[in-house]
Amino acid sequence: MNASSVPGNAHDDRFNEVLALIQNAKQQAMQAVNTQLIELYWQVGAYISRKLEQAEWGDSVVSQLAEHLAQTQPGLRGFTRSNLFRMRQFYETYHAEEKVAPLVRQLSWSHNLIIFSQSKRPEEREFYVRLAVQEKWSKRELERQFKTALFERSVTQPAKISAVLRQAHPAALEIFRDAYMLEFLDLPGGHAETDLHKGLMARLKEFLSELGRDFCFVGSEYPLQVGGCDFSLDLLFFHRGLNCLVAIELKVGRFKPEYLGKLNFYLEALDRKERKPHENPAIGVLLCASKDDEVVEYALNRSLSPALIAEYQVQLPDKQLLQAKLHEFYALNIAQGEEE
């Protein structure tokens, strides 16, 4: 008798499909419960907002409501005075934002609290709401993205990509970043490329989360043979949305223009030897410890390959400095708009 069909065997492969159906149903049920809970909080927040706006209630009445619910619904959680005011804030924050309001219902209450309490601008709220839904961030990962100032970096430091990549994939600016935060590696100063490579492999899950949800790992030190010579590509991924291979070359020093030539060579090899007929041409990423933006611009200006140059950071950025840059960015845009 096959071991997989022994009664009571926890690894019986015959029932995998049934188990998958059960797991899927559980996930859908949890999502439905969350959606209903968020809708309840929305309605309660709207009710309180309306009562306060019409001066029918004062803040003390909200406190009385919390006490009344605690007494009459002893098993009910989440309806404290502070949370009732958060429900009001939740409703007032999003009720006029037609594009964002449906999305917040797809996030947990904890996710929503983090976003509307830590965001300073409407566009920042929308940015994190959309990404949290798209990337399916956990609460911990969402908090990390705020710490890494992802919004500020995305606005003030857009990805440096070649014209070819921009034309082939207009969405590339939203997918790739100018800098990737690798603080989770705990790398010391003066680390070697092997340390960086080994660290990324050891923390691949975190690295994939930093890259984005549609990135799938293909291989490390991926072998390529051209002519009679053997070559090794640092990291190879596949992006489901772009439908193409993404090659990443690691450099622990400052970007040099000659690095781009080697990356272009790898992309050509991937397109000729690895790319499948239904896939788009491969994209290359040079991930360096630092870069000079002017040098990058010159290097990419005449590049015929879909490539980009980014840097990695092993320490969290100075968020106050980035917020100051963001303020300058918005002020400059307003000034330019007034001139026009």
TrEMBL record:
Domain YhcG PDDEXK nuclease intervals: 174-326
Gene3D superfamilies, A to Z: 3.40.1350.10
Domain spans labelled YhcG N-terminal: 18-153
One term of GO molecular function: nucleic acid binding
Pfam families from the UniProt entry: DUF1016_N, YhcG_C
Name of this protein: DUF1016 domain-containing protein
